[in-house]
Specification:
Elements (H helix, E strand, L loop, with lengths): L6 H9 L6 H24 L9 H30 L2 H7 L6 H34 L2 H6 L5 H26 L5 H35 L2
Helix pairs in contact: 2-3, 2-5, 2-7, 3-5, 4-5, 5-7, 5-8, 7-8
Length: 214
């Protein structure tokens, strides 16, 4: 779908009042953030100095690189999934509401639709946060000449994660299940704290290493 378009076409489509919207865009920017962390890994593992890294660090490089590759692909899927996430609500609103039974069924379907519309961006956030965590080894041991790419990765993943939560919030307002709402709000609060802490940690590392460059 959108991921099959050229970057120029995707940009022009985003300018319109249709789709893609913010939820799709942050799936793509999150994917790019994960890809940049992989770039830092590739700029590091082909250097002689990499051979002298502790085995534990080299294992983390490979393991985290592989997972970032999966995350980048999964976020691209979310880029397209988000465009369809609200369709369930739109379809449910067209259902008949002439009888009490029809009204009840329509209401249940609308609520199910809002949950789907909420859970897609929530999954996008989860993937971005996971990708953000995986910046750790690259921030500390990554090739110094790729440190700005690591910084860009951090900023893209952090911004994409938080932006995804905006779509969670707006759909949450239409959810009637109070226990479900409380659970989602609690998880969002945890993610926001985690995003802020990780962003601060990795950007401080990025700027610190930049200052030490000769």
């Amino acid at each position: 779908m959108f991921t099959k378009e050229t970057l120029e076409k995707y940009l022009e489509m985003t300018k319109s009042k249709e789709m893609p919207g913010g939820g799709s865009v942050v799936g793509y920017t999150g994917s790019l953030g994960a890809a940049l962390a992989m770039m830092v890994s590739n700029l590091t593992t082909d250097k002689k100095a990499y051979a002298e890294f502790p085995e534990e660090v080299k294992e983390r490089f490979q393991k985290d690189y592989d997972r970032l590759n999966e995350i980048a692909d999964e976020l691209l899927v979310m880029c397209d999934e988000d465009a369809n996430s609200f369709q369930g609500v739109l379809d449910a609103m067209k259902l008949p509401k002439g009888t009490e039974e029809e009204k009840k069924h329509r209401s249940e379907e609308i609520q199910a639709g809002y949950r789907t519309a909420l859970e897609v961006p929530f999954k996008t956030c989860e993937l971005c946060v996971e990708g953000l965590k995986l910046n750790d080894v690259f921030a500390e041991y990554g090739n110094i000449y790729g440190i700005t790419d690591q910084g860009c990765s951090t900023l893209l993943l952090a911004a994409s994660a938080e932006a995804a939560l905006l779509n969670v919030i707006i759909n949450l307002k239409s959810i009637k299940d109070e226990d479900y709402k409380k659970d989602i709000i609690s998880k969002m609060d945890e993610y926001r704290e985690e995003i802020d802490a990780l962003k601060t940690k990795y950007m401080e590392s990025c700027y610190s290493r930049l200052e030490k460059m000769e």
